[in-house]
Amino acid sequence: MSPIDLLFLVLLLLGLWAGFARGLLSGISRLIAYLAALFLAARFAAPIGQLAGEWLGVGRFVRSMIAGQIPESLHNAQVPPEQLRPILEAAGVPAAYREQMIEYAASHPLLEAIAIPYTEWMHTVLGLILMLGVLCAVFNLLLRPLVKIAQDFVPAVLNRAGGLLLGGVLTLFELAILALILQAFADLPQTAGLQTALSSSELLPPLTHLAQTLLTGLGTDGLLPAAIQTPPTL
Prior knowledge:
mainly alpha; 10 helices; elongated
């Protein structure tokens, strides 16, 4: 079993325990809060992430990663799209990024054409993480009084059993989004170590597929970068 799979299993067990401890109604409210937060986060991740990313200098970080992979003399070169395509294919750049790079190459220098798709992706992921965290906290806070009022009317056995089940479901959803983010980060330049760690995982592909299904079900087609929207191969 790979270390990544072991981490996923430990987190799942912790989620089951947390669900059992908190009970059925808390599990329902947390699941509703998570899905509602994900629904909204996917729609505002790009603009929020761009603001946060520009403040944090994400673009400079991405360009510095890519600059080391390209001869300095080519940084500002204009490479025709038809010449760039075979180079990107030979370098193993994922198709989700490759087509965007080829499109940008028509009007941008080589370094910028390659950096922009990665930067847009990282901005959106940053926005998704920030929005998801904030909205989950807000929704859970709003639902907490209702949970406290209704909890006394739920039988103890049903409360614990239902909490265990919903704790597992919620944790699977959370792990699925985590797996999707890890998989996409592995596509970035200079992440060979992460790529190696993820390649041995047996749980990553089904979790990533679950995340893709969840996002599609929430109507996010076209709202997130192609690196997220492209369904993984099982």
